[in-house]
Amino acid sequence: MKHRPLHQPLSSAAPATRAEEAVTLRAVSKEYRSRGGTVTALREVTLAFVAGSFTAVMGPSGSGKSTLLQCAAGLDRPTSGEIRVAGHDLGGLSEAKLTVLRRERIGFVFQSFNLLPSLTAELNVALPLRLAGRKPGRRQVRDALAAVGLENRIRHRPAELSGGQQQRVAIARALVTKPEVIFADEPTGALDSAAGREVLSLLRGLADREGRTVVMVTHDPAAASWADRVVFLADGRLSGELDAPTPASVAARVAQLETAGARS
C-alpha cells in the first residue's frame, strides 16, 4: 500500500518527465588516502536516479552509502568516473560553479539537522537564500515552512522544537530554493518512529506531488519501504536493487548482505 503525504506540497508545479535521469553516476570510484594506506569507498559504481523518483540506498556499515550520497550531491569529488546532476557534469565545474549548482538545484538533509541554534525556524530556512546573495521573500520562506506543517512555529528556535520538528525545518530549508534533487542522509536516524513517519511522508510527497527526485541513505528497512526502489551497496560496489520494497523484503536482503560479508 502506498504511503500518503501528511502535508500539502510547496508548489503545484507539474512533475518532471519520469524518463529523465536527474542524477547519473558512471564508473564512479572514490579513494581516501591516509597514513595507513588507501581505502576504497566506492568501486566503479554505475547508477541512475530517474526524475520524480524516491530511492533508498542501503548496505552494511562501511559499504559506501554516505560516500555515494556526498559525491552525487557534489559535496565530495570522486577519484574517477562521471557524475551528472540536472544535466550538469560535476567534474567539469569549478568549485565556485559547483557551489552555485548545489545552492540552486540540490537540497541536502542531514541526520543531525544542522540548524543554527541562535536563529528562528524562519531565519534558518532563509539561510540558503542569504548565502546565495538573494534577499529572502517572507512569503517564500513561510510557504516552505507551511509545506512541512510548521507555519505556526516560524519564530521558534531549534531548542524550542522537538526532534521531528527540527528535521522538518531542515527539510523546509532544503526546499526553499526549489531544488530538483533532494539528498537525505539518515534523515530519520535521530527521530522516534512517529516523527520518522512524518519526515518520510514529506519526502514521499516531494516525489509524488512535486516531481522532485529524492535519494535517501538509511539503515532502517521500514524507512526504505517508503521508496520506489532500494539500491544495495556492499564493499563499495552495487549489490542489487529491489523494486516496490516492503519492510520484510528489505530486511531479508540486508540480512543476506550481512551474512555474505561475515563469510568473506
Question: What's the SSE blueprint?
Answer:
Blueprint: E1 21-34, E2 37-50, E3 54-58, H1 65-72, E4 80-85, E5 88-89, H2 95-105, E6 106-109, H3 121-131, H4 138-147, H5 163-175, E7 181-185, H6 193-210, E8 213-217, H7 221-224, E9 229-234, E10 237-243, H8 247-263
Parallel strand pairs: 3-8, 3-9, 6-7, 7-8
Antiparallel strand pairs: 1-2, 1-4, 4-5, 9-10
Question: How would you sum up this structure, described in words?
Answer:
The protein is α/β, with parallel strands linked by helices and 264 residues long. The chain has one domain (21-263): P-loop containing nucleotide triphosphate hydrolases (Rossmann fold, 3-Layer(aba) Sandwich), CATH 3.40.50.300. Helix content is 35%, strand content 26%. The chain has 8 helices and 10 strands. It has helices at 65-72, 95-105, 121-131, 138-147, 163-175, 193-210, 221-224, 247-263; strands spanning 21-34, 37-50, 54-58, 80-85, 88-89, 106-109, 181-185, 213-217, 229-234, 237-243. A 6-stranded mixed beta sheet has the order 6-7-8-3-9-10, with helices on both faces. β7 (181-185), α6 (193-210) and β8 (213-217) form a beta-alpha-beta unit. α3 packs across α4 (138-147), α3 (121-131) runs parallel beside α5 (163-175) and α5 (163-175) packs parallel to α6. The model is unreliable at 4-18 (pLDDT under 50).
Short description:
The chain has 264 residues and is an alpha/beta fold. It has a single domain (21-263), classed as P-loop containing nucleotide triphosphate hydrolases (Rossmann fold, 3-Layer(aba) Sandwich), CATH 3.40.50.
**Mean pLDDT figure:** 88
Query: What is the fold named in CATH at topology level?
Result: Rossmann fold
Question: Superfamily at the CATH H level?
Answer: P-loop containing nucleotide triphosphate hydrolases
| Number of helices in the DSSP assignment | 8
Which structural class do you get from the secondary structure elements? alpha/beta
Unreliable stretches: 4-18
